[in-house]
Design brief:
Order of helices and strands: HHEHHEHHHHHHEEHHHHHHHHH
Radius of gyration: 23 Å
Number of strands: 4
Largest sheet: 4 strands, mixed
Distance between the termini: 60 Å
Helix content: 55-70%
Structural class: mainly alpha
Number of helices: 19
């Protein structure tokens, strides 16, 4: 073996060791943080805390510094990886690199699955028959805070356990108990890709951000029952595994987040995959199909748009719209704005993809260029999710504590927690801001690193790979600065 190839392999081994160590550190921090959270008095509240933090230096310095940090990290990575990645580095399997598989026994598996299904059924009952005020019913908090926010953190930082707790899959398997898999009514068209999941994600985000009844318990419970019918119909018509992989939006969503995590759960039979380096699942051997590319972009656009509507730009837009066309219903305006923002987001990424191909010297942009790199953006979405929603989880999530003792509003005190009072002091504006800065910068730096590794795999030649990443770097710097500006608006004194 030549000295050059030995250098390539040593850099790959060092990179793998770094990823493994990062995963181990993240795991320890997560466990320690979970233990700490269990000992805290649990909170209540919403996105806004009603307090502001006065920065010691102008906001523009933070924004510029964050952009420079991403730019400098790109230069350093390009220098240390200037000789490329070895052939082994181009063929690493996401579950390889020493990962071990631990089977989850049928008894434990079904205990977890039936517990999750029971929780789902009880929540629906509480939504239908419990108090209908949002903060007197645990349903909205369980759905939007503990599950949509909290389970996303679990999927990203620990592992995707959705295959183990998916209530619709559990019901389907119970109905088919002891019988062979049902033959699908029709074959799922390959040309659809994951188009059903894309449409459902767009609709779900619109429901979260634009539907005025999204926190009304009975309306939310009925929506869950409607989606349940859709999920079971999809599995019956197209086959269980096909629909879960392509149409069941939450299986796709948590599956994408789980690619970042050090653990993962494989189904049929369930088994836990341990010890894979953090974020290794985001490095792919083939480009993501167009519908998966759109799905990931929707994930990023959703958290960005949610932050954007909390800035002064949103009321200014609504005011200008009112002056121009008069009063319009709030729900359609927000839904159309969300879809337009998502479309612009996708168009911007498509433009960056063409620019990457042009920078790499390709005569015409290959349609799959964007597919090679779209999953490298996932750390940005995770970072933004952490920065934007962690205060919601820590504060609003506390409302679940008293409500667990009296879920139907009948005067019960099942766990002795009905007198619990929310502790707003678990977070403050300063901690929110500095966590946001750290998360956004680290997320973008990691995305830059992953994109550069992918470029070396796609283009082989280090110089070509470097040129191809210049448009992506520009996007990353702009996205870093704009994300921090959006996150600063609710918490920074101006």
């Amino acid at each position: 073996m030549s000295a050059q190839h030995r250098g390539h392999d040593s850099r790959l081994e060092i990179g793998v060791v770094v990823l493994r160590q990062a995963g181990a550190i993240a795991w320890r921090l997560l466990v320690a943080g979970s233990i700490l959270l269990l000992t805290l008095p649990v909170p209540a509240g919403a996105h806004g805390l009603g307090q502001r933090y006065e920065l010691p230096v102008p906001l523009s310095i933070y924004l510029t510094g964050a952009g420079l940090a991403v730019g400098v990290s790109f230069v350093l990575m390009a220098w240390f990886m200037r000789r490329g990645v070895s052939a082994a580095g181009r063929t690493v399997e996401p579950d390889g690199l020493g990962a071990s598989r631990v089977p989850i026994g049928p008894a434990l598996s079904w205990t977890i699955r039936l517990s999750a299904l029971t929780s789902f059924a009880v929540l629906v009952a509480i939504g239908l028959f419990g108090p209908q005020q949002p903060f007197k019913n645990i349903m909205p908090i369980a759905v939007w805070v503990l599950w949509w926010v909290g389970f996303a953190y679990l999927a990203a930082f620990v592992g995707n356990f959705w295959p183990l707790v998916n209530p619709w899959l559990t019901v389907y398997d119970l109905v088919r108990w002891g019988r062979p898999a049902a033959r699908p009514v029709t074959v799922y068209p390959d040309r659809w890709g994951i188009a059903p999941a894309v449409l459902l994600l767009a609709g779900f985000v619109a429901m979260e951000l634009a539907w005025t009844k999204s926190e009304v318990p009975r309306a939310l419970a009925l929506a869950m029952l409607g989606y349940s019918a859709l999920a079971w119909t999809g599995m019956a018509v197209f086959g269980r595994d096909q629909w879960l992989a392509r149409g069941e939006v939450f299986s796709v969503y948590f599956g994408v987040l789980g690619r970042f995590a050090p653990l993962t759960v494989r189904s049929g039979p369930h088994r836990l995959v341990l010890g894979r380096p953090l974020a290794i699942g985001l490095l792919v051997k083939r480009p993501a199909p167009p519908t998966m590319t759109v799905f990931v972009l929707l994930m990023l656009a959703a958290v960005t748009f949610d932050g954007l509507i909390e800035t002064p730009l949103w009321p200014a837009f609504l005011h200008a719209l009112h002056d121009r066309v008069g009063i319009l219903p709030a729900e359609p305006v927000a839904a159309v704005a969300w879809l337009a923002f998502a479309a612009l987001f996708a168009l911007l990424y498509a433009g960056v993809g063409r620019a990457m191909a042009w920078s790499a010297g390709e005569a015409s942009a290959r349609p799959e260029v964007g597919g090679w790199f779209v999953l490298t953006l996932v750390p940005i979405g995770i970072a933004y999710h952490l920065a934007h929603y962690h205060s919601l989880l820590l504060v609003a999530g506390q409302y679940a504590i008293p409500l667990l003792s009296d879920p139907f509003g009948l005067g019960w005190d099942l766990f002795g927690t009905t007198l619990y009072r929310v502790d707003l002091s678990v977070v403050n504006a300063a901690s929110i801001w500095y966590l946001s800065v750290g998360a956004i910068v680290i997320g973008h730096v990691l995305a830059v690193y992953l994109a550069h590794v992918m470029a070396l795999r796609v283009y082989r030649d280090p110089r070509t790979a470097l040129r191809s990443q210049i448009p992506m770097l520009v996007l990353m710097v702009i996205y870093t600065m704009s994300s921090l500006w959006i996150l600063s608006q609710p918490v920074i004194k101006t």
